[in-house]
Amino acid sequence: MAGRSITELRGGRVYDPAHGIDGVVQSIYLCDGQVVGAPSDPSDIKVSHDLSGCIVMAGGIDIHTHIGGGKVNLARMMLPEDHRQDLVARGRHPRMGSGHAAPSTLTVGYRYAEMGYTACFEPAMLAANARQAHLEMGDTPIVDKGAYVLLGNDDLMLRMLAGKEPGVKVRDYIAWTLRAAQAMAIKVVNPGGINAFKFNQRKLDLDEQNAYYGITPRQVLLALADGIRELGLPHPLHIHGCNLGVPGNLDTTLATIAALDGLPAHLTHVQFHSYGTEGDRKFSSGAAAVAEAVNRSPNISMDVGQILFGQTVTESGDSMRQYAGSAFGSPKKSVLMDIECDAGCGVVPFKYKDKNFVNALQWAIGLELFLLVSDPWRLFLTTDHPNGAPFTTYPHLIRLLMDRSFRNDMLKTINPDAAAASTLASIEREYTLYEIAIMTRAGPARSLGLGNLGHLGVGARGDVAVYVDHPDRERMFTTPRFVFKAGEMIVRDGRVIASPTGATHVMRVDYDTSIERTLDAYFERYMTVSRRNLAVADGEIDGDGRGSLIAHGARRSS
Amino acid sequence: MSTLILRLEAAPDFDVDLSGITPDALKDKRLPDIRRLKLRQGQRDMALGDLFAIDGTVGGDELEIHGACTRLHHVGAGMRAGQLRVIGDCGAWLGSEMRGGTLSVRGNAGDGVGASMRGGLIDISGSVGDYLGAPFPGAVSGMKGGTILVQRRAGRRVGDRMRRGLVVIGGDAGHGCGSQMIAGSIVVLGAVDSGVGTGMRRGTIALAQAPAGLGPGFALNGHFDLAFTQLLLRHVGGLKSAWRSRLSGIASVERWVGDAGGLGEILILS
Predict the structure, then answer these.
(1) Closest-CA residue of chain B to A76
(2) Set of chain A residues whose Cβ sits within 8 Å of the Cβ of B44
(3) Which pLDDT score is estimated for A2?
(4) CA A517, CA A176: separation in Å to the nearest integer?
(5) A75: nearest CA in chain B?
(6) Domain span at residue A484?
(7) What's the number of domains chain A is made of?
(8) Which domain holds residue B37?
(9) B31 class by beta-carbon count within 10 Å (0-12 exposed, 13-18 middle, 19+ buried)
């Protein structure tokens, strides 16, 4: 082992929930991009950083953040003011950038790294738009990335379900789509509802039929969730449910959890799906009921989609709900569009105001969810960037979760009726650093099946974030002391000093290639491209000399 | 006289964004801090003092920029109060998103003068480029208030999507003057090119010279002696003495109405 070059991170307080390490002072050793055990020969340690007084965690993983693909680019184009008002000059980073709610690709990578995040997952990639999404993510530096491909509103899937095709064929189609789009998981947005929108339906509840196919969202959800379980994908169906943002959608969310009946599923941005209709304004918090249902259902994981006050832009595949929301856009402009009838897309700028009853209650509902769901392994920290707030607000959100007096101070500044309608003030829970490390590192890594990410055990990739322990957790998480990516120091004192290119994570499962005959017939008849042209080749991601692919396999075969 | 003077030492061979360099923003700053103010130059930042020699008195409401050139953009952008005098030509977006005060230019200015402006006065002795008083990129409407005076020629699409305020062009105006206007008033004392008021919803375009033709959406409404016209002309004549003599003796107007909805009006002064 002569000539090993080990970097020692000496004496930091380590939070590594994957190994049950809760604030133990110990050293971490990095060598050849990986975490290694303590060297037998101390002379192998070539660099040593004294981390006394520091908190050490694995690099952060954002399980749901819109950083690439058509809708992000539409938001960038529609909001030149978002970029003009937030310019990053060259010099501070290796390259310039701009943007607050929908930043340019470079700025996204730098800003994530500057908070100690080293992997991000784009949750809404259309198969028809996968090439564009991968190109954008390929230009996002430092962080590892991956994407979830949308299914469940495409005509082929609905056609298969309406034609009562056997489950194995649906599974083959899911597996082919994963491969063709180079995706990490499957997401469904407003199951069947985006398609129903094109047949002039303006709402679609869980058991309402699509006017053309006669299929209900329940059928779509079950077919996909079951197919994904059978394929053995680590990350279950990523569900953006029906009736997003509609008062009373709490019942739909509870019915969705019940409908899954033990099938694994991930409910995303649940805050937008936890609204009741009580009170004078017919808008109330359903967080307690949803949290109780999630606590009771070990098959369900969720992320919150917390809103935080300020200007942002909402980007969603849910054209049905974005159409309804476009009347409330601020500034008043919006884009709704569709590509190849795969799903939809809607972009509406929005300003969340703390004095507005509905916005203030949304804020409280999100925090209630965080605090009432008991298992951090099944709850992930997101703002559904940028739909609830830009990801740069994460340190602020972490402080709200970890500091009850700060949370209650903020509660006093919001709309008083909303504050009175929320149980937030009475909730005493304060998150610990261990729980934060679960929600932002170990949990997402386990849910996505990322193997060597999200922990600091021997053999883990050397993605490490080091924070200076400070009672103000917002300050602490805003400016890491060091961030390492694959063993290389990329951030020092909150500033990017190196800009490697992260890998793209994809999921590979076997399928019966005879499905391609069905696809060819469908593509020939209805699509503007051929099946072969739609598929993104490996070389399009790793062929430029920078990008690389990390292929993960199904749970059963691994 | 408490005037702060910025003197351009040498015309830069790069574009500079002067947003934020306004009398109201500099008023409470000390001279060394003013010299250190950041300007956007391409991908990088530079200091105000690297480009300009700065002297004069701080703390006043007046700012002068001497030796300006067309590489300087966003001059007076976002200004809220005070007096900004520019000697020399300016680049694009002069006085964009301005809210108050007076911005006068002895020279010409580029495209997008007074874009999305909300208040104040811009007075330009020379000519301007296209899209005067139009929307700033990303904005839904053009100027929402204030006055813009141009003594010579203006380019295409003067007052595109403007919503409120007054624009007076002493010379000729290019193609599409008042296109997509939502409201407000435009007065052109010289000749206008084709496409006047295309797509206008409301608002008034007063022309001292009859255009060669109007779009098919406009119809002749008749000849009138309107009290509004007299008030408008008296107001415009009071702004510049040269204009007063050109506007005297106008008794009646030929009124055309039209474009989308039929509420836009074009008044031909005769």
Answers:
(1) B138
(2) 89-91, 96
(3) 58
(4) 12
(5) B138
(6) 6-58+453-496
(7) 2
(8) 1-67
(9) middle
